[in-house]
Each structure stands twice: as C-alpha cells, then as structure tokens.
Amino acid sequence: MSDNTSPQSLLREHYLIDSDTDGIRLQLRHRCRNDMVRKSSSNTVILMHGATFPSESLFDVSINGVSFMDVLATAGFDVWAVDARGYGGSTRPQAMEAAPDTNPPLTTARIAAHDLGSAIEHVLEKNAIERLSLVAMSWGGSVAGIYATQYGEKLEKLALVAPQWLSSRPLRIDSGQPLTAWRLAHLDAFRAAWLAGVPLAKQESVLPPGWFEQWATVTDATDPDAPEPRSIRAPGGAIQDTREHWLADRPLYEPSLITVPVLLVHAEWDQDVRIDMMRDLFSRLDNAAYRRWLEIGGGTHMILMEPERHQAFNAIIDFLSETSLRSAAARDLDDE
Q: How far apart are CA 170 and CA 279, in angstroms?
C-alpha cells in the first residue's frame, strides 16, 4: 500500500468508553471504509501506542496526505486505536494535575493492559466477533505482550513495531531521573532525539521538510492543558517499567506463552530498541503459530512516520490479510 492511498470515503470517529476504574474513561479512535459490509475477526484490528505519545500522534497524523489508520482502513480493515489513561483524549488521573514529584508513577504497562482489555472488549462486542488483531508500538509492545499472554484466545494476530524488550545496556527512556507520576515531553527537543543515530547526510530523507511540523502540530493538540508550550504530559509508569523490568532482566511477560502468529517490525537506526533486543525477543517467541521479522533499512524508532513507512505498512497489511491455519480452522468451526 503506497502513500498514494486516498483517505476519502472513510468513516472517522472518536469517542469515550468506560474503563474498569470508576471515573476513568478511554478514548477510542475508529476508522473504516464507508462501504465496509462485513466486520470479522480477520479484518478487525486495534492499535496500541507507546510510552510518550498517544494513538493519534503515532497512528493518525496525515503525513503526506495519509495516516497509518487511513492506510489500514482503505485496505479493508475496521481499525481502532485506544489511548491508555493519562494519554491523549483519555481521562488524565488527578495526580497529573499536581506536581510530578508528589505521586508515584502513573499508568504502568500492567495498568495499560487493563485499558487495552477494556477497549478490546468494546470492539469485540460492537462487531459481534470473538477475536481481533493487535498492532502495538514500542512500550505498547509491553502492554500487548501482557495482554496476549493472558487473553490470547481473543487475538487473531499480533504485530509489534519496535517493541520494548530486555536490555543489558542503558536505554534512552530512562536516564536515571527520579521516578515521578508524569513527565513533560518537549516536542521541539524530540526532533533531535528522533534523528539521533541517523547519518547527517540521510537526515532530510528520513524526516523531509514539513513532516516534523505536521506531526508536532497534531501531537501538541493532544494535550492542550500541558504546563508549557509545545509540550505534552506523559505518565511515568513506562519509566518504572523500564527500570524495574527491562533493565533488571525481569520481563513483564513470557514470550513463549504467545501462540498467535507474530510479526516484528524494526528499523536499522532505532536508538530505543536495538537489533540485539529484537533478536532476543524473536528467539523467545518460539510457540507462536508462526513468526516473522522485518528489518527496514533507512528508518528510526519512528518508522511509521517516515518515508520508508510504506515497507512497514505493506508488511503489516500482508501479515494481517494472509490466512493462517489457525484462523482458517477457527473460522471453519464458526461456520459449523
């Protein structure tokens, strides 16, 4: 699927649903073709964001005329994306209105897995299906991994884009700072972090003129109450997860318990998830119905927002579209 995909004739909506916690509501973004007739386990997919940026920022910025959600919907999928509590349009816990150092870290991956579960239950009920596919990015891979090991029977397939995993070396997300309830991400400073590791001569091809500003404008609007201009607040739980699990050789989930088909997507200049981390995770997914790993040249941790994103889009669409023995057998049983 190329970036020439037209986002026209797509149903676009977003709304709030209840979480499993009183007073906490979760934003769901929804996209599908207006002419879509049948919604099934094989064509329903939900997206889970990463540690800092919400679902709109990662999956629904119209860069070069089209977003990841647009591409998936145009390809025939019923597409959903959820914001965990404290992110984007979901309820921000009261502690995010206080100084960050006055409360413990908010929204760890285990809490976010509950929010993902609430969103999945909503979509399963709405579409009258038993399973759906899950695509998750970065820290969202931790959330998805937890969910997949506990509720694998509700998943059709699992695609992980640069998922967090064990590291024997420091990670950029945890610089040793105090663990706080939330943190402030300055968008203009993030541009340098985005391009870190990219050869100077290649930086404009990775982040063409105007692309960063399009992304930053949308991202900035996801937190209009941030205390400083051109910034957003992000819960601190992902930092705690990194320090207490991924840097401490204490995985948040056991990959060998995942039995659905799995696709890993990674780019060569990723400074947050190294290739050795991907290799280790891939080797541990040894009970997946089948597994695949795509390594993209000329991209970073933000590959879904870069010119080479078409490689990731095509791989994810192909993976979600193909019929596995497991899904075919399940559908045969459904038809009996």
A: 17
